[in-house]
Amino acid sequence: MKTAIYQPVISQELPLMEAFYTIQGEGYHQGRAAYFIRLAGCDVGCVWCDVKESWDVNTHPIVKVEDIVREAAQSPARLAVITGGEPLMHDLTELCEQLHNQGFEINIETSGAYPLSGDLDWICFSPKKFKKPLPEFYAVAHELKVIVYHPSDFVFAESFAAQMNPDCKLYLQPEWGKSDNMLPLIIEYVKNNPQWRVSLQVHKYMNIP
């Protein structure tokens, strides 16, 4: 009888740009205390992205999942938001499992350009024109959030709204640098199309991360 060879479990590692405890400033969960885990790496290429430093995965440290979760568990809240970059460039299975083991509710912010992974409690799907999203998100997203940078983005937003599951919440959010011009248009659009809601980056008004 052969003796089983012990193979130690190697913890997954992920490129971590930053992690911080703050208030969720956008979308459905706006106003809630949340621990943000920002993973590095993105090839979607939004010209107006406010975290372009997250794009290059090679410029950020590779951190063990257990260490990421250990730090998250020090926060008093139990809402974790996985963001990026584009977080689904990475397999999130182990990260979600360990966060759930610590009692976290897990939200994700994604462009939908990469396949889903991990057991996620809330999926904020924010499609971009720069890289086509995968159709799998239409059926599973809890929230559709479209960034309005140009008036043509209303048509773009409706093209996705028509395909979303009936329980999905619909949000229009002005791109921060274009808020003065786009927010009045969004307000009028939502008044005329009340199935949509307005999302603002209120964390920026509060001057917090």
Describe, in short, the structure shown.
By secondary structure, this protein is an alpha/beta fold. The protein has six helices and nine strands, in the order βββαβαββαβαβαβα. It has one domain: TIM Barrel, CATH 3.20.20.
Task: Give a verbal description of the structure.
Helix content is 23%, strand content 24%. Helix 1 packs parallel to helix 2 (93-101). The model is unreliable at 1-9 (pLDDT under 50). The protein has helices spanning 65-72, 93-101, 137-140, 153-161, 179-192, 202-205; strands spanning 13-23, 33-39, 62-64, 79-83, 105-110, 122-125, 143-148, 169-174, 196-198. The protein is globular and about 50 Å long. Strands 3-1-2-4-5-6-7-8-9 form a nine-stranded mixed beta sheet.
What key phrases describe this protein's structure?
alpha/beta, 9-stranded mixed beta sheet, 209 residues, single chain, TIM Barrel, 23% helix
Tally of strands: 9
The CATH class is: Alpha Beta
At the fourth CATH level, what is the homologous superfamily? Aldolase class I
Strand order of the largest sheet: 3-1-2-4-5-6-7-8-9
CATH architecture: Alpha-Beta Barrel
Tertiary shape: globular
Number of helices: 6
Instruction: Write the element-wise H/E pattern from the N-terminal end onward.
Output: EEEHEHEEHEHEHEH
Give helix % range: 10-25%
Rg of Cα set:
18 Å
**CATH fold name, please?**
TIM Barrel
Q: How would you describe the oligomerization state of the chains in this entry?
A: single chain
Outline the low-pLDDT stretches: 1-9
**Termini distance?**
59 Å
Count of domain modules: 1
| Beta-strand proportion | 15-25%
Largest sheet: 9 strands, mixed
